[in-house]
Amino acid sequence: MVQIVGKYQHVSNENFEEFMKALGHPELVIPFLQSKAVVEVQRNADQWTITVTSDGKSSAATFKVNEPYEEKLPSSDRKFQSVTTQEGNNFITETQLGDTLKVVRLYEFTDTEMKVVSTFLIHSIALTRKSLKLNFIVQPYVQKMTFSFAYMGTSWYSTMQRLLTNLSN
């Protein structure tokens, strides 16, 4: 089973501009494309929390699988009705944006990444956002620095290890 809990750094988009235009928010394309959001997935018993932080702003959704909940999407100040189901290592979130508008998000988790495929059902447009798990981004640097700084003394090495550990948490 994949470890879903963790922090993920956004790295790429596919079809983002078309998706935002179909949602009626073309003005959000440039700010979203320039931001590098961090998504944190947490679990407390049967309750999940997904927090998105970008440009100093955060938006969190807390839910139980298969139960309706209100969600504030990062692109809007309004709250929407959502339901999230789980299939293995994946979450499927259906969000009702209006009487006839629905967005379905498929969160696919692996050991190294989270891929979110959002589909705007009325227009059949799909957006894919890929985020890498933070500890997998930092780990190669820790290994290289272990070798490079080993000769500089225990104090420097310990400080760098603590710094990099804090960055990955």
From TrEMBL:
Instruction: Reply yes or no: does the keyword Transmembrane apply.
Output: no
Regions crossing the membrane: none
> Which InterPro entries does this chain map to?
Calycin, Fatty_acid-bd, ILBP, Lipocln_cytosolic_FA-bd_dom
The record's SUPFAM superfamilies line, in alphabetical order, gives:
Lipocalins
User: Mind telling me which Pfam families this protein's record contains?
Assistant: Lipocalin
Q: What family classification does the UniProt entry report for this protein?
A: Belongs to the calycin superfamily. Fatty-acid binding protein (FABP) family.
GO MF terms here are: lipid binding
Q: Which UniProt keywords apply?
A: Lipid-binding
Instruction: Identify the residues that the record assigns to the Lipocalin/cytosolic fatty-acid binding domain, covering every copy.
Output: 5-108
Q: Which Gene3D superfamilies match?
A: 2.40.128.20
Q: What is this protein called?
A: Fatty acid-binding protein, liver
